[in-house]
Amino acid sequence: MISDFCDNLTESPIGIYVHVPFCAFRCAYCAFYKAVPSRATIESYIKTLKVEWDLRYRGESVGTIFWGGGTPSILSAKQLEDMRHIFPDEMPFLKEWTVECSPLTITKDRLAAMRDIGVTRISIGVETFDEKLLKTLNRRQTLWQTLEAYELARNFSFDVNLDLMFAVPGQRLRQWEMDLRQAVALRPEHLSTYCLTMEEETAFAARHKDKIPPAERGWERFHGLAGETLTKAGYQHYEVSNFAQPGKQCLHNVRIWQMNDWLGIGPAAASQYNGRRFKNISDLNRWMCGILAGAACEEDICAVDANLLVQDAIIFGLRTRTGIHLPESMNNRNMDACLRLFKFWCEQGLMECKKSVYYPTERGLLLADALAVEILGTFDNPVRPKV
Ligand code: SF4
């Protein structure tokens, strides 16, 4: 709960995020794509990560690691092992280490390397099991390749998350239901369900924008069906887009939503670290040249104070089932405004209160973004000071 986080911020082990900005090919809907990297580019990238780590890291205990992208599993087994040497040899407080993988890059060699370096959790970008929708998205995997990749990850005893996507052009509710059922049949520890975001600058968006169900009609029905199907199957709906078997929540993300510090390295990686939030510049070459020359390569810098942490913990609290306990340190006006809204939302069935802790209901989670906008409007001082 919020009050616990604010008390423990300095002592908690930090999370580490590493952004791996490489993909083997372009998915139609994504504006991110970089060309397939050469071995030399990946080697320079790993060398620069090490330099950035030495520049930024201040010796705290590491609690969680998350390698995301892009497609971290595009790296070879040897390159994955080289990435391990960035971090301290001993990490006694490390509880979870996740690597994002695409089904086509999951091989025995890579999984063995991941297991040997200490990875505990694999997140697989399934998106959909429907072959036709995979083609629409220009995802190269087939259903059978996805199932094979999943089995392989299972043989190595990793905890597995499957990413699923809804609101794909042409997708019917029935197809979404089939995806959910197929995912449940595999019994992964964790499932993430995302609404497809149309990146305006892609040709895909231009081609399909009229086929996406409008948010007010389509989004809620797809999202509601995910909640219904997955909770019935025994998954806990612990965050708007995330479902887990008991005890299998993504610790790294939970700790970030609870406003614990994390350090992000690699181009475009964001951090909340050492009293500031900032983002690394997104350009791979500029990031490499800058970091190797000893420059910070940061943008969007913002000072973090207790007021900001409390506000953001409330906003993220509306998206999770962890519960919101308003800290006594909050100013009276903000506290009164929050309580008034929370009580109103309880009457509307959007929240419930147990022992002064407020929890969003399933219906409240569906409306988390709208509730966040409403509550932000009540805060006295929502302005974020620039450093
Ligand atoms: S969706 Fe993911 S895998 Fe596909 S191009 Fe974008 S970052 Fe790469």
Give your account of this protein's structure:
The protein has helices at residues 2-8, 39-56, 77-84, 108-117, 131-137, 143-155, 173-186, 203-208, 215-232, 251-257, 284-292, 306-317, 332-347, 362-366, 368-376; strands at 14-20, 62-69, 96-101, 121-127, 159-166, 190-195, 236-239, 242-244, 262-265, 270-273, 276-280, 298-303, 351-354, 357-360. The protein is an alpha/beta fold and 387 residues long. It has two domains: 11-256, TIM Barrel, CATH 3.20.20.70; 306-376, Arc Repressor Mutant, subunit A (Orthogonal Bundle), CATH 1.10.10. The chain is globular and about 60 Å long. It starts with a helix and ends in an 11-residue tail after the last helix. Bound molecules: iron/sulfur cluster. Residues 23, 26-27, 30, 32-33, 69-71, 102 line the site of iron/sulfur cluster. The site of iron/sulfur cluster has 10 residues, from loops.
Low-confidence stretches: 1-10
Number of discrete domains: 2
> Any idea of the CATH class of the largest domain?
Alpha Beta
**What do the pLDDT scores average to?**
91
User: What gross morphology would you assign?
Assistant: globular
